[in-house]
Design brief:
single chain; Na+/H+ antiporter like fold; 0% strand
Length: 422
């Protein structure tokens, strides 16, 4: 199938599944679509047992599209930008230290805790996984790809939770920035893996990390500043032109970041925050308006919902390839890691909250809400698929663990989050 045919199939599935979810399941859109996609995958697997050629045909179809490339280079920039322009920028600026600490400390702590935990588990002879040859760096790579929460899933859930503006902004901002930081940590560890740890110095790792993060911030801020001036010049008179400008700027930041090895996710988020500003920063002034017209926000909301639907259908369909490497021992380890992932995230966000609580006010059980609202999604799966083949057989274990944890966070945490908040 070519790109047009594949896009048609995905949009038809998104439309059909959305109708079933709205009329029958009545679940949150992302969760309902993914459950239906998983059911479709399981039906295909059952039919495949009866008729192997059918399974081979479907498997070859799913293998045609590069999920990692599609998400990281095509879908993620648009989804992050849509998320960034939906945030209350003034609330975020007032709480920027809190958001950055939550994002950075939480991701770094989770990366090393989960990575170390996985390495310890596979070294136990009871599981019989020492033959996989996974190194400590490989396990840290898993920790890095599973640590960041999926802003797409998180933002779609918290909008319906009736949280206070401050708490909602903290959760949304943390999910947007920990995404970019997580990708940077993953790429840094990946360079250590590829080049060999003996050829890597602390200085080289620090430079790489700083270049990605600071470069992404600077790129997004510079393009965002000039983009804001351009939108102010238009003055919301030509809404179609504003849509074209925002689309082109998102693509421009993504292309530049990819070419010069800067953090594209952080760059796109910074771009969105700049363009989302009020033209007059004084909220008490008369005639205050956004730099972008309401039509632009509606367009990006529509694009966000469409890409969201396709993304979670793709996640559901990916189960076909993941279950091909199923091993019962993998399932046992996944249960242990689910607990470790949740606990490590809770400690990772609790530390900065306790430190900041001397000066800032936090709602009761904020750490618990942020922890349980930390849904993982397509980003983790895309990064897992992006792992080098040099990892060997251990890659199948990492893929399986990633998928199980993503399923748990979206289906279990996502469905119970509202009750936890209440």
């Amino acid at each position: 199938m070519d790109v047009l045919e594949l896009s048609t199939v995905l949009l038809l599935l998104a439309s059909f599944f959305s109708i079933i979810n709205l009329r029958i399941l009545k679940l949150p859109q992302t969760i309902g679509l993914m459950i239906l996609a998983i059911c479709l995958s399981l039906i295909v697997l059952v039919i495949g047992i009866i008729s192997p050629p059918f399974l081979e045909a479907v498997t070859s179809l799913t293998d045609q599209f590069d999920f990692s490339l599609l998400l990281l280079n095509v879908m993620l920039p648009f989804l992050l930008f849509a998320g960034a322009i939906s945030i209350n920028v003034h609330e975020l600026l007032k709480d920027k230290v809190t958001v950055l600490l939550l994002a950075s400390v939480g991701v770094v702590f989770s990366t090393f805790t989960v990575g170390t935990g996985l390495y310890w588990l596979i070294q136990q002879s009871f599981f019989g996984l020492t033959t996989l040859g996974l190194t400590y760096v490989d396990c840290l790579l898993f920790g890095a790809l599973i640590a960041p929460t999926d802003p797409i899933a998180v933002l779609s859930m918290i909008k319906k939770m009736n949280l206070s503006t401050t708490t909602e902004t903290r959760i949304a901002g943390e999910s947007l920035f920990n995404d970019g930081i997580g990708v940077v940590i993953f790429l840094t560890l990946l360079s250590v893996k590829v080049e060999g740890i003996e050829n890597v110095t602390v200085q080289s790792v620090s430079i790489l990390f700083a270049t990605e993060v600071i470069g992404g911030v600077v790129l997004g801020s510079v393009i965002g500043y000039f983009g804001l001036k351009l939108l102010q010049y238009i003055e919301n008179q030509y809404v179609e032109l504003e849509v074209i400008i925002t689309l082109s700027l998102v693509l421009f930041v993504s292309v530049i970041a990819h070419r010069y090895h800067l953090s594209g996710p952080i760059g796109v988020v910074m771009l969105g925050l700049f363009l989302n500003k009020n033209i007059d920063a004084d909220k008490n002034a008369a005639g205050v308006q956004k730099a972008m017209g309401e039509y632009v926000y509606k367009f990006w909301h529509l694009l966000d919902e469409t890409l969201n639907a396709i993304l979670f259908i793709l996640i559901g369909l990916e189960i076909i390839s993941v279950l091909r490497s199923f091993d019962f021992i993998y399932l046992i380890i996944s249960f242990a890691l689910i607990i470790l992932v949740v606990v490590s995230r809770w400690i990772g966000v609790l530390i900065p909250i306790k430190i900041l609580s001397f000066k800032k006010q936090f709602e009761k059980n904020t750490a618990l809400i942020i922890t349980w609202g930390g849904l993982r999604g397509g980003l983790s799966i895309a990064l897992a698929l992006n792992l080098p083949d040099s990892i060997g057989e251990g890659k199948s274990l990492i893929l399986f663990l990633t998928y199980i944890i993503v399923l748990f966070t979206i289906l279990v945490q996502g469905l119970t989050l509202k009750k936890i908040v209440k």
